[in-house]
Design a protein that fits this description.
The complex is a heterodimer of chains A (360) and B (321).
Chain A lengths: L1 H8 L7 H17 L7 E4 L5 E4 L1 H8 L1 H17 L6 H18 L5 H27 L5 H20 L9 H7 L9 H19 L2 H10 L1 H6 L4 H27 L11 H11 L11 H20 L4 H18 L2 H27 L1
Antiparallel strand pairs in A: 1-2
Helix pairs in contact in A: 2-14, 3-14, 4-9, 4-10, 4-12, 4-13, 4-14, 5-6, 5-7, 5-12, 6-7, 6-12, 8-12, 10-12, 13-14, 14-15
Chain B lengths: L1 H27 L4 E7 L6 H13 L6 E7 L3 H14 L3 E4 L8 H9 L3 E6 L11 E4 L2 H14 L6 E6 L5 H16 L3 E7 L4 H14 L5 E4 L2 H14 L10 E5 L3 H8 L5 E3 L6 H10 L7 E3 L4 E3 L5 H7 L4
Parallel strand pairs in B: 1-2, 1-3, 3-4, 4-5, 5-11, 6-7, 6-8, 8-9, 9-10
Antiparallel strand pairs in B: 10-12
The chains are: A mainly alpha (360), B alpha/beta (321).
Chain lengths: 360, 321
Amino acid sequence: MENKRKKFLSGGLGQLTIPLIAIAILVIFNLIRDPGFFGIGISHNNDGNAVLSGNIITIINGASELAILAMGMTIVTAACGGQDISVGAAAAIAGSVFVKVLKSGSSISVGTVLLAFAFSCVVAMIFGAFNGSLVAIFRIQPMIATLILYTCGRSIAYWINGGATPTVDSSIIKAIGGFIPGIPVPTPVFIVLLMAILFKLLFRFTSLELFTQSVGINGAAARLNGINPTLIKLVSFIILGVCVSVSGCIGVSRLGLINHETLLLDIEMDAILAVAIGGNNLGGGKFRISGSIIGAYVIQMLTITLYAMKVPSTDVKAYKAIVIILLVVIGSPVVKARFSKLMARISENWKKATVKGAEE
Amino acid sequence: MRKFRSLLLVGLLVVSCLFVLTACGKDEGDGKIKVGVVNNPPSESGYREANVKDMEKVFSEANGYELKTFYSDKNDAQLQAAKGFITDGVDYLLISAAETTGWDDVLKEAKDAGVKVYLFDRKIAVDESLYEAAVVSDMAKEGDTAVNWLLSLNLPEYKVIHIQGAMGSDAQIGRTGALDAQFASGKMTKIVQQTAGWDEAEAKKIVESVINSGEDFNVIYAENDGMARGAVAALDEAGITHGVDGKVVIIGFDCNKWALRELLAKKWNYDGQCSPFQAQIISDLIKSGKSPANKMIINEEKGFDAKTITQGDIDTYGLGD
């Protein structure tokens, strides 16, 4: 009984308390502001398919790339105690490779799309391995190591396709970035689901989760127990590479166009924030991918809310920053410790009062 | 012994330096015209890629030029590079600035050093005496042409979603101006006016938020092709028709080939040209050695209507592939 109360007071959901509270606050805020915000309707798109529409769909759909990147970022954070700031640039490279392969064939079939994705995946994994080896083997701080690709990534992407914004017009690409005929839910949502399941399976059938956590908590101790920290860190970056490729390809497919200067611009910051809002320790160690995914939706919901309020898009970032500062500060260990101390005192006083009451 | 070796090294260093110097000297003796170009990066857009290629083609060695280039979309980096070119002793400095402000000192420095400055593509907010000529697109005219075309449609009402480029850029200011005048006069209604910073995905988000809010609109005025494409993607998903026979009028700028093909397919209505070909005009000015009477040289530009565009127009005026 006592234990249960304690758990509730410190947040019954553990790590997920902060992101869930954030979502709840955003929902309540929007309900007060405009209940119509949550309306979901069915409309027919210009290809004649019945599709779901409404802000909620926009949020869930629009956060897809961010959610996938946040998953990979969580693993890197947990293993290395640092973040990869080159994911946006790397996604531009992956997307450019995707388009390059698509355009090299005469026509686009399911086969060529898969081939193009495979190519972009391999390229992104190589760049991931590059970042990973800087971090794991040369022991460079992750943020510094990935700063290299962050700086030059979009230039590399430019070399792949040249400066024009090449377009790909294909019903298959449209289906990946939009809707599959006959299915009213946007395809990127399914891709997020698929990635989440893949991660779940990966953790279920391998010891990667445990190994990653132990490397993140104490690399030396992990090594003494027979875990190879270098390998684990490298693997985490390669996994992030896969995530980068997937989100890059979604980004390209949405509009059937690659603009390497703007594709997933500044998404690295949002991805890191998603990890932080998800309650993960940015210094490495224990992690929950579900937290980061919810974090990603919190960020997207915040953005869409601001757009719905017609906040000028130049100001959106500033408002976002304010909310995120609040979230991160509330989620910080210092505030958490203070809060639980306060709660303990209140409950003690309350207990004293009730005991007194009973005596009388 | 060690002393001797270090002396030898120093000697080698001096000799190699001299060699480099003479090599440089030889270079100068070629009589080539040294041109430094400070531009935005070719990766910025299809427009810029065509612009950069055009510059490289016209200011080639075969045409008697020695070309140095610097590409950045950061004003500070551009200013640094321009200063670098002046110290390098270029004869001409060609600038397409990232921002219109902050260039006074550098241009004064150039004038003192006897470097002649030409502005291309974008104007800079400085005194006219600081440069030889500015070969520019008249962005405001582009906006005017597009808005006049829009007015010629005689729609019963104009409910406009206005998607702006990166705030403060010449293209944004020019293309916004004409539309703002219409909003101010009440002829057109502003449903939303937001900047997407040339970002396609951002443009899509903006249009999605309007659709979700249930507000009615019948014109999308996007300040470049990419953002127009993002906007159209949002319409397609929501099942709102667009183009010549559709509900929403789509206006884009820059004349990318793929955008003009959308026009030909009647899915868009209008695309304003922004000509990236200024190099030849500048080269002619340099070679003639004369200062133009009017410092502002406007590059003639067109606008294309989906109803009248032909494949020939796409081949001639389209950028990219």
